Amino acid sequence: MDSVGTEKTPEEKREERFEKWLAPPGIEFDSPEAERLYYERLKRLTDAYRLREPDRVPVSLPISNYPAYYAGVNLKTIMYDYDELRRVWKKYLDDFEMDTYTPPSMVPPGKVYDLLDYRGYHFPGRGLPDNAPGYQFVEDEYMMANEYDKLIKNPSDFWMRTYMPRIFGLFEPLKSLQSLTDIWEIPAMYFMPFISPDLQNTLRSIIDIGEELGKWIQVVGQCNLEAMKAGVPSGFSGSLAKAPFDMIGDTLRGTRGIMLDLHRQPDKLLEAIEVITDLSIDSTISTMNASGGVLVIFVLHKGADGFLSNAQFDKFYWPSLRRFILALIDEGIVPVLFAEGSYNDRIERCNEFPKGAVSWMFDRTDMATAKKVLGDKCSISGNVSTSLLTTGTPEEVKEYCRKLIEVCAPGGGYILAGGATIDTGEPENLRAMMEASKEYGVYK
Asked: What share of the chain in percent tops pLDDT 90?
């Protein structure tokens, strides 16, 4: 509310978030030149998100664990050796020109995942060879087909006593607890399960996890600070989220399970989606308001062309995601929708948000179509393929980027980025992306 009690519009709230992102970060830059470059790069990026023409097309280098392999080590090493984690990201920062910085916040802290006995992913040394460049999701039914009512009735209780014991070996003893709502005036009996050595060990391990996470987050923060001092801003200010359908289809039921539920119990699925949507909206807005962030990235897994029919997309996938997006927009938050696979059959149905309120990242979607359909309302990015970056030549990368810039850059609102991230590949291919923007992406 302002001084006369009028509530701010979503546009005003959004602009406040961008201005906060652009505000001086209160750090000591390495040099006046670094300070100048920091604000120049950040303005370039935020102008693109706000559908303005910056000085040139900003570039987001699509790296995942790439700094480790570029520096001669592997993912397993940096998962456990935080000194190495910091060293390889510093080398990446020193050796590459970039508009925005990608910190190592997506590198899993290995000891934490060991303590959790996490079963949802395979990692190097845990289900994958030591030299594997990434990690893999373990597809399974972590919620059974007959458990929808338990989820719908009390999702927090379901998460604590059913889902968590299945996905984390550490939390198997939680199955012995009663529901928290069973605690009343004589509480001692509720805590009887804590006599169990297994449950006591779980609690001790949680303390160890907290201590280990403290070490990891300190190193990630140091990497961020080094980049900022060198004049490179983070390309991301915000949080991650999932489409409600994907929360159930990825996290709980698995692909096979949710595809069966579409036909066998569609009403239960829709009811559960609504519950997940409400929880996700409340949680995401609370997190974003606490941090003052701007962007929420949605990785849209099961909404791609060919996965669901258009009728299924319109019934099961889009309405809940749309409601989630509109709630964020109302708070001045910019949803960034990462359309994995292709959305050539989807973007016409998804073009219904106010100008400047949403950004789209594309994997394999035709960018000329995306620009034509969305370009006057949404910022767009992506489409430089991982195969091109890992196996192509710098000349091929540069030419592909030139064509993307030619199609997508006019009028502003375009960020040159990958269709997905890479772990390995020729460094000159990443440099070619920067060169393409500087050569072909300058606005007159």
From this structure: 94
